Amino acid sequence: MADSPVDLDRRAYRRVVAAATTGTFVEVYDLLIYGYFASVLAEQFFPRQDPTAALLSTFAILALGSVVRPAGAVIFGHVGDRLGRRTALVASVLLMSGSTMALGLLPTYHTVGILAPVLLLVCRVLQGLSASGELTGANVLVFEHAPSDRRGRAVSIVNVAGNVGALTAAATGFALARSLEPEQLATWGWRLAFLVASLIGLVGLYVRTRVLDSPVFVALGDAPKRDSAPIVRTLRTAKRRLLVLTVWTAAASLGGFMLVGFLPSYLIRVGRLSPADAFAANGLSIIVLGLSTMLGGYLVDRYPVRRVAIGVVVGAALAAVPAFLLIVRSGTFAGALIGQSLWAMFLGASGMLGAVLSMVLFPVPIRFTGTALASNLAVALVGSSAPYVSASLIAATGSPVSPAIYVVVVTMAALLAAIVGLPSRSFLRSPGIPHGPADPRTAEI
What we know:
This protein is mostly helical. The chain has 20 helices and no strands.
């Protein structure tokens, strides 16, 4: 008996979700495994005379690797809005897998001297270019395929895949720290974490080549190729919307980068935990992050997006300082886990809402470009520098809680953006949201 059209649609939708989540898992793992091995990489790629300076240099490369993300947003946004969401996603996972494999094979400072950190920076730049189109494209593709009553939950699944990638990175760090001697971890153990990731990326590449493109993008026909460049149309018609999404994503990415890129080293150096306990506590808090992401998706499917956004960002601001105080003053595994989890309860929903807000703010012809540009500007200017700025704040002030104050300031800016920039009664189930007007100028009016 032949499958019904409904069965075929469901099968195609599941294939799209699998393609988006597999690639996002790989991308997030590849990006964040660097943060988990920051202390080891500092020893391998910089002189050992000053451990603090080496760690700061490692975090600086983490930040510099994201400076190119706005340029990558323009490139992948152009591809996604001109040639299709699927084409952009295939290119992003291919670039990420190649650069991650190269990073795992790099010579160290003790072998080639100053060339080692230069090559490390090149790999991070390529990873940054890839990341500029990954999560944006995955969210857009899934959202535009999703049933109208499950759009928030569909986007949350993609973001949870990123959480699982982060959890896997933490688990990998924990397993290697437990099973290897410090000398083994420093000489070759860290390479395994990068090389395995590049192989998993081939799975994501295969799955993505077998999905159909977004139906609402296909419905545009040849119009995207006849119009002016997507970046030109975005800057001409959606500057205010870009600002709103950039400020929101700055706060969300600051929290995310700090949780998974800074806190593992923070737990070791300030929280006085062993590397294995730090990886375990951080990994368990990422489970809370995933649950928060799913809850956020459920809430925006039922309630106005603006109301949910305000509630989430207020909770994140209120939780930041108590979370850091608990980590610092307890100095225990339990305190580290509870402190991180308290904050992660709001961070997951905050990150997921950034993806949802982009669907509300931008119409289909410029959706990929608008989302990618706002998100990557936020990451380049604020998110990716969070580990470096946090470590610098502690060094300058002597206060281990100073990063939390930084978080509160940026989060208050996101609250203002949500209050001023979001429509008060916007529901994701509204029929106009996934399609939007064909002409972005009409959308701006």
